[in-house]
From TrEMBL:
Keywords: Phosphoprotein. This is PH domain-containing protein. Residues 1-18, 419-443 have a biased composition (Polar residues). Residues 1-26, 413-490 are annotated as: Disordered. It comes from the Eukaryota. Residues 301-410 form the PH domain. The keyword Phosphoprotein applies. Pfam families: BAR_4, PH_20. Residues 459-484 have a biased composition (Low complexity). The keyword Phosphoprotein applies.
């Protein structure tokens, strides 16, 4: 008996040389599954032909000559799904052609073997038929469900890509005025999240199909071996018949046993090399995928990075990932990770409706309303003053400058506990007349006091006494805070 040989699967050539791939490919995910289902059906019908043949042989042995012609009818028609078999000599199709011709020659032979045929030969092919049916169910429940999961994930991705196209078009036509949830930057991150889930489903389904594909060669070898084994037993049963009958059955069995175990499989992969999966091809990656409006200007942040924000209750600083988008939104996220969970902003401020204070060292304040909770949540939410701290003064100045350009109102308010960044100079300084003016701590409306900072590069904070000594005007000689000698607080 021939030993199974290793066959090389076909390689599907790439359609272009670019590394970019479509986010939602147009390929049919169930194409490979249907192909293997058809092939299993072809094998099932082939085994069914053999079952019918032997059963009819057993029955017609009781009727001799004329009744034996019924056997020929079981293999008279071409095989179902015959395009799955090699039509040249030496394969399954050639084997059935040989069976037809020999059956015609033994139409008048003995039938003493009817009982043995029914009791020992038919069960072999019946079990093989059942194995093929079980393989079909396994394919449908395994790879078939995976294909449906891929189609569902692709539908979600396509829906959000179309949503991104709508909102980027709105951004271009409406001048960037939109809600936080419609911000193209936010929508794009949602696309990336669903695209990652889609590719995970695609890769899982692909691996399942590769496993099924690799197992088919061994399964088909088992089918051929079982056919050979059954026909070998069949030959032993009819060996006691007349010499002519024995010779014709021997010819049928010899034809079946001369089929190489990989003959049909190699022909199959050659005829379907454009459909079968190449296991050597790399898996898909989000980094190599492109989709419409991926690089649209509205999806690229003006500035992004980590900032610390003071909590309202504990008064401690928590580090978050923040961005300012071209839509003039300030979004705050827990992290910059797009894949582990849906990247929905924890807080969103529409900067044209916000007020930003002065920057002091690493700190600056923004007062506004969190608009990340939807239309109803935005109506019920109240304005709050958010205190931020960057990692360095230079970073704080960079964030402040970009936020200032988009903010609806800019004040000279300094964060609590900050030392004035532009102190009043000494008496001998050319800028001695430029002093810091601080309002009373009791501001109307509950706002923190505003401190007007003037340009100065040297000197110390002016107290009422030193201001007078420097010859400053009464307005410039006002104390820096409600407590003499302390910087401005709120």
């Amino acid at each position: 008996m021939a030993t199974p040989t290793t066959s090389t699967l076909p390689t599907r050539s790439a359609t272009n040389n670019s590394v970019d791939e479509d986010a939602v490919p147009g390929e049919d995910t169930s194409e490979v599954t249907r192909l293997f289902s058809e092939r299993l059906a072809a094998w099932k019908h082939a085994v069914g032909y053999l079952e019918d043949y032997i059963e009819a042989t057993e029955k017609t042995n009781h009727a001799h000559g004329k009744e034996y012609e019924k056997i020929l009818k079981t293999v008279k028609d071409p095989l179902k799904e015959s395009h799955h078999f090699d039509q040249s000599l030496g394969g399954v199709a050639g084997m059935f052609e040989n069976i037809r011709s020999n059956t015609q020659g033994i139409s008048n032979q003995h039938y003493e073997t009817a009982k043995q045929l029914k009791g020992s030969i038919l069960p072999v092919f019946d079990r093989l038929h059942t194995e093929i049916k079980n393989k079909t169910k396994e394919l449908t429940k395994g790879a078939g469900k995976g294909s449906k999961a891929v189609d569902k994930a692709r539908a979600h991705t396509q829906k959000h890509i179309e949503l991104l196209g709508q909102h980027t078009a709105t951004f271009d036509s409406a001048g960037g005025r939109m809600t936080a949830t419609d911000d193209p930057y936010v929508v794009q991150r949602g696309v990336l999240h669903r695209l990652n889930k889609q590719i995970l489903e695609e890769n899982n389904n692909r691996q399942d199909l590769i496993s099924v594909q690799n197992s088919f060669a061994q399964f088909e070898a088992h089918i051929v071996q079982t056919i050979q084994h059954g026909l070998g037993q069949f030959m032993q049963v009819v060996n006691t018949q007349a010499e002519q009958t024995r010779a014709m059955y021997g010819d049928m069995v010899g034809t079946a046993q001369r089929i190489p175990l990989d003959f049909e499989w190699n022909g199959f992969i050659q005829r379907n090399d454009t459909v079968l999966i190449d296991p050597a091809a790399p898996a898909r990656s989000v980094a190599n995928v492109s989709f419409p409006n991926q690089d649209h200007g509205s999806t690229q942040p003006l500035i992004s990075g980590s900032l610390e924000r003071k909590a309202k209750i504990m008064r401690s600083y928590d580090t978050n990932y923040c961005v300012v988008t071209p839509s003039k939104f300030f979004h705050e996220y827990k992290t910059d990770d797009n894949f582990s969970r849906d990247p929905v902003p924890e807080m969103s401020l529409y900067l044209p409706d916000c007020m930003i204070g002065a920057v002091s060292g690493q700190k600056f304040n923004v007062k506004g309303k969190d608009v990340s909770k939807g239309k109803i949540g935005n109506t019920l939410s109240m304005s709050h003053e958010y205190q931020f701290k960057a990692h360095t003064p230079a970073a704080a100045a960079q964030w402040w400058e970009i936020i200032r350009e988009a903010a609806g109102q800019v004040t000279s308010e300094v964060p609590a506990g900050s030392v004035p960044t532009s102190p009043v100079t000494g008496q001998n300084s050319p800028d001695a007349s430029l002093a810091s003016t601080v309002q009373s701590p009791t501001q109307p409306g509950g706002l923190a006091p505003l401190q007007t900072q003037n340009i100065a590069t040297q000197g110390t904070v002016a107290s009422p006494t030193t201001a007078g000594t420097a010859g400053a005007t009464p307005s410039s000689a006002a104390p820096a805070s409600g407590v003499v000698g302390e910087p401005g607080k709120y």
